[in-house]
Write a structure and sequence with these properties.
- With 288 residues, the chain is of the alpha/beta class.
- It has three domains: 163 residues, Alpha-Beta Complex (Conserved hypothetical protein from pyrococcus furiosus pfu- 392566-001, ParB domain), CATH 3.90.1530; 34 residues, no CATH class; 49 residues, no CATH class.
- Helices cover 50% and strands 16% of the residues.
- It contains twelve helices and nine strands.
- A five-stranded mixed sheet has the order 3-7-5-6-4, with helices on both faces. The protein has a two-stranded antiparallel ribbon with strand order 1-2. The protein has a two-stranded antiparallel sheet with strand order 8-9.
- Strand 8 and strand 9 form a beta hairpin.
- Helix 4 packs across helix 6.
- The longest helix has 24 residues.
- The N terminus is likely disordered.
Amino acid sequence: MKKGLGKGLAALIGDLDDKSNGQDIKVNTEVVTDQTNVPIEFLVPNRNQPRKNFSETSLDELSQSIKQKGILLPILVRPLDEKEFQIIAGERRWRAAQKAGLNEVPVIIKNFNESEVLEIGLIENMQRENLSAIEEALGFERLQKEYNYTQENLSKILSKSRAYVANALRLLSLPHKVQQLVQSGDLSSGHARALIVLADPLPVAKFAIKKGMSVRQLESYVSYLKKDKKSKQTLVNQKSPDTLMLEKKLSDSLGLSVEIAEGKGEKGEIKIKYLSYDQLNFICNKLN
């Protein structure tokens, strides 16, 4: 597949030469008109564009800027008919222009096919206001499934490493509810990547949000859980049913992880694991 939208959106609207790293840009950029103004109601959003969520605060700030200085960069569109144009790049500007009360907006009208529309949408959003990690991954996945892109194609088009693309796509293996937490901004892409290795990441994701864990803290916690699971299984295979019953009773009573290590004869030790000073104080109060 010969693709190459190059390293920037500017190349698509004539701000750069039609070269990228010494190679021709293989994209249909037949110009219907140069920059012109059209009534704002003639523009329609692209329902398949990668970005699904728009920050109202960000739109309000952009709207105030547009009121003072106008739209500095024209909106890139493609014609649907004589009085309807689909937004390819610039939906935030279009939304903010409506808030600012503009009747007309500057546009550049070009013809693009469907895969090029998705490419440009990804590039534009990644360069301006970052997509959520899930929105980005869904865009990558759609280019793969519908237009037969490889990870190598994507890495070249988006000027990202192949590992970056692969790691982004791995996020789609997370349960939908965890993906929603990334979409809403409650979890970062770093948090999400740390959760991928878990069989049931949702409870851990909620716990990480509640505790305000950093990515590094969550990585350590996930590593602890994985290691602890293995050691617990080994111990469970060696323990008597009575000991396992007592472990469960104590764990349920405290709401914390409790282990009973059996020694020789009637000796042994109890391990109570805590994750915060609050939990440690709770244990001390229980013992007192």
